Amino acid sequence: MKINYKTLAASKARDPSKDVLMGKYAILKRQNSKCFLDGCENALTSYKGPGSNKLCRAHQLKMRQYGGHGRIDRPYTFWKKDHCEECGHNPMRDNSQLINVPEPYRTILGMMLLHVDHVRVGGKDKYTNSNGVNHPKNLKTLCVECHMLKTFSKGDHWKDGFHSK
Asked: Which residues does the chain have with pLDDT short of 70?
């Protein structure tokens, strides 16, 4: 299979070493502001650029603009791991079709084969209320196969499941 690498975001990724530090006043003003992601207690980034008004530096660098997979409109994407937490599958290492794909494209394609699953999609506990559904303790990285099996075995696809909301 031939892959057109220029269509992937990494070919246009922003170089973080070229990011500019904010002025002293702006940094002091942001000192007590935290990253907006559930489960992250880091202060907002001191660097100008995408996500600087909502994210810490670690999460800012995981954004698509930097070649990562994080999207502010989908906060759970920032917690995606590089392997399936159920079966241990790592697409970047284990997928024979990706083995000859150069970096960073192998990682980008491999991460597309992993999904972030919301462990609990209903009920009332501290991780599934409106402020905790995307908390890292309620998220699990699964490969395509494990995610499909979990979704159907738990009934997440049914009327009262996740997709009906």
From this structure: 1-11, 121-132, 156-165
User: For residue 15, which amino acid is it?
Assistant: D
Residue range of the domain that includes 67? 19-75
> 39, 60, 75 — which closes off a domain?
75
- In DSSP notation, 30-94 reads HTT-B-SSTT--PBPPSB-STTTTT--HHHHTTBGGGTS-BBTTBGGGGG--SS-TTT---HHHH
119 and 55 together in one domain: no
Rg (CA), the chain: 18
Say if 26 falls within a structural domain.
yes
141 forms beta bridges with 116
Same domain, 122 and 70: no
Cis previous bond, 50, omega within 30:
no
pLDDT in tens, 46-75: 999 999 999 999 999 999 899 888 999 999
